[in-house]
Structures are given as C-alpha cells and as structure tokens.
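User: I've been trying to design a sequence by hand for this structure and keep getting stuck. Would you show me what you'd pick, starting by listing the structure so we're on the same page?

Assistant: Good idea, let's start from the same input. This is the structure you sent:
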C-alpha cells in the first residue's frame, strides 16, 4: 500500500486568489489515486443536503472514477460502519478495503443564506409654496373707486409621504471539500469557495465546478513537475 509523510511535513501548496482557495499536497503520490469515494456532505440546512452529488458530476466529467454517495452509504450500512464527523484511520482503511477506493471526498456546507425579499418604508417630505393675494379698493384720480389685487406674501405647506420599497437580497452558499487518503486518513487536498446568486442551487453547482477544476489543474501541474 502507498505511504505518505505526515500532513505537517507535506509541503502544501496554497493557490493565490480569493475564490476558490485550495491546498494540495506536494508529496502525495496521486498516481495511486484510481477511485474516489464521495461521502455525504455535512449540512445543518435541509435545502443544501445532497450537494456532494454536484462534485460527483464534475469529477466524472473530468475523467475520475467515482463511487457516489448512495452506493457508498449502502455498503457501509451493510457492514454496520457508522460514519459521522471525524474519520479515524481504521474507519477510512475499512471503507477503502470494502469499496476499493483510494481517496474519500468529504465536505460540509459552511454557510447558507437563501435569497429573500424585504420591504422597507421610505419617508419623503414635500414642500409647496404658493402666493397669497389680497383685494383692496383704491380711489382713482377722477374720484371713482376700483378694486385691485396685490400679492401680500407666500403660503408654505409641508406634507409627508411614506412609500413601500421592495428589494431582493441574493442568496449565498459556501462549501468546504477535502480529499482524504483512505490508508492514513490524512488530508491530501482541501478547497473552499463561496458564491452568491438568485439561486442557491446554481451557486452550489458553480462552487463544485470551480473546486473540481482547480483540483484537476493542480494535479496536472504536479504531474508536469515530476
């Protein structure tokens, strides 16, 4: 079986840039990675359960051999293997032996905010001014009288108007994904990314695409530097 040095001595390479952020081991022998088992991602939000299937889609499209979550969980249940949170080396080795996978992809939904619409009330003040006229009677030079209208000032009125304003706050999703060697339970790759959009499912799909693309790119770099 393959052996790797400890994670602390792995000399991990950190990608530049904000999104996605990934780290890949510089010493792990990825030639030994033939099959990837995908675990259910941890998510406290019901709406985001099943996002690991998006990673399965893009890993398959990238040419990797994948054992998807449903198959993996079925086999684990048959062998009474419980998986939650931390994966011990014994557990990962048992999973690898039963399913014939070399690496496990595990992850979590670290943030989720659905799109929402909010209503606010906007108050505006309106000031209106109009002239004020008065009618007087004046005596003309011929002794007769006539009425005249003259401006005697300005009348100012102020009114307040409250209008409802509706605006939309876009949804946000953040995911963390890790690849774990089944022999040692050590992390050989980790990535995180977030995305905002009107559809949180679209956001999760874009994140999965970006992270798998980044992993494939770094894997190609590793192979070129051998």
């Amino acid at each position: 079986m393959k052996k790797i040095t400890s994670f602390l001595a792995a000399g991990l390479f950190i990608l530049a840039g904000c999104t996605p952020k990934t780290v890949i081991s510089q010493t792990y022998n990825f030639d030994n990675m033939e099959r990837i088992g995908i675990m259910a991602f941890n998510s406290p939000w019901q709406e985001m359960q099943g996002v690991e299937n998006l990673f399965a889609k893009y890993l398959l499209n990238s040419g990797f051999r994948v054992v998807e979550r449903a198959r993996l969980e079925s086999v684990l249940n048959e062998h009474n293997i419980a998986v939650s949170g931390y994966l011990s080396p014994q557990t990962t080795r048992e999973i690898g032996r039963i399913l014939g996978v070399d690496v496990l992809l595990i992850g979590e939904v670290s943030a989720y905010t659905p799109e929402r619409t909010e209503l606010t009330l906007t108050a505006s003040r309106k000031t209106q001014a109009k002239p004020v006229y008065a009618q007087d009677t004046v005596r003309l030079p011929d002794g007769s009288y006539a009425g005249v209208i003259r401006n005697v000032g300005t009348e100012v009125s102020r009114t307040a108007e409250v209008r409802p304003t509706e605006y939309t706050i876009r949804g946000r999703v953040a995911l963390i994904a890790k690849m774990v060697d089944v022999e040692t339970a050590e992390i050989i790759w980790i990535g995180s990314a977030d995305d905002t959009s009107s559809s949180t499912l679209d956001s999760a799909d874009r994140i999965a695409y970006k992270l798998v693309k980044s992993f494939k790119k770094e894997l190609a770099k590793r192979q070129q530097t051998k």
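That's my pick for every position. To get oriented when you compare it with your attempt: Residues 133 and 153 are 7 Å apart (CA to CA). The chain has four helices and nine strands.
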